[in-house]
Specification:
alpha+beta; 2 domains; Aminopeptidase; 291 residues; 6 helices; 22% helix
């Protein structure tokens, strides 16, 4: 480690940023470039990195945010983009970065969490993180006969549609008061640009953006993005058709007239409590704000 330097907040350093993007692409096969060019890298995304010259060789990023838990706001960080160049592995770099993050935020937030893949499930408990099961919600559905709204698929390659999406992402209300995230526009835009770019729809009458996918009689509902209070049942009525039999929610829905079924699932969520607030049971972290 004697030739390595710790650095952070290098968004405006072209060489380090380019190296960071390359390491992310090589490690996770993800592309940060368009996300960055569209303004996705905001002040709430903070990389903690080791560099060798102009090369980023190890990283663990912090996303600062708030959790909405039963209507109350809790300060939290989500850790993501944990990666090390293969030529620099076995030197304890990820351990040093994790300790640096914990030291930086242990007195300023109530919860720290991350989503881990299967190859590192034994790593995070060493830092006090505990594996937490999530709850996936669904509802059996019978479609109504009358629908009034106009549903328009958004094209992120069109400047007007991208502007609309950015505006909604930046000014949205949390999707649920039972459990949701806030100040996560940066992560949401990454998903819109890279993951769900073919599944984004604007409901004109309701003035909401809905991210969903329908296959046969089943709808996967990923997010509802609105700047006003919404009723999920009303939105569901507009996106279903006569074939719809079930909707699965990839977030925690408020009830609002829906008869919800739930299934426990383990998606690699690890949580560390550093304040008095406990991470709630039987909730689903919004998929569009998983870093």
């Amino acid at each position: 480690m004697q030739n390595l330097k710790f650095t952070t907040k290098y968004k405006n350093n072209d060489k380090l940023r380019t190296s960071f993007f390359k390491l992310a692409a090589d490690t996770f096969d993800i592309n940060f470039e368009r996300w960055y060019r569209q303004g996705g890298w905001g002040e709430q995304y903070i990389p903690f990195s080791f560099v060798d010259g102009d090369q980023v060789v190890a990283n663990a990023s912090v996303n600062t945010l708030e959790l909405i838990i039963h209507g109350q706001r809790t300060k939290a960080i989500q850790i993501g983009t944990v990666m090390t160049d293969p030529n620099y592995r076995g030197k304890g770099l990820s351990t040093h970065l994790m300790n640096q993050i914990l030291q930086e935020y242990e007195h300023t937030v109530d919860l720290m969490y991350l989503f881990a893949n299967e190859s590192v499930l034994d790593f995070y408990p060493k830092f006090g993180f505990k594996n937490v099961e999530e709850c996936l919600f669904s509802t059996k559905y019978t479609s109504i006969s009358s629908k009034s709204t106009i549903i328009r698929k958004l094209d992120i390659n069109l400047a007007a549609d991208l502007h609309l999406l950015n505006n909604f992402a930046s000014n949205r209300l949390p999707v649920s008061q039972r459990f949701a995230t806030d100040h996560t526009a940066s992560v949401l835009m990454f998903y819109c640009l890279n993951v769900f770019n073919e599944n984004i729809y604007y409901l004109e009458d309701q003035n909401v953006i809905v991210i969903y996918q329908q296959k046969d009689d089943h709808i996967e509902l990923f997010d509802i993005i609105s700047t006003n209070e919404i009723n999920i049942k009303d939105i569901s009525d507009q996106i279903t058709d006569e074939y719809t039999k079930q909707i699965t929610f990839h977030f925690t829905p408020d009830g609002q007239g829906l008869e919800l079924n739930s299934t426990m699932t383990n998606e690699g969520l690890f949580v560390k409590t550093v304040g008095d607030t406990l991470y709630p049971a039987h909730v689903k972290h919004p998929i569009t704000s998983i870093a």
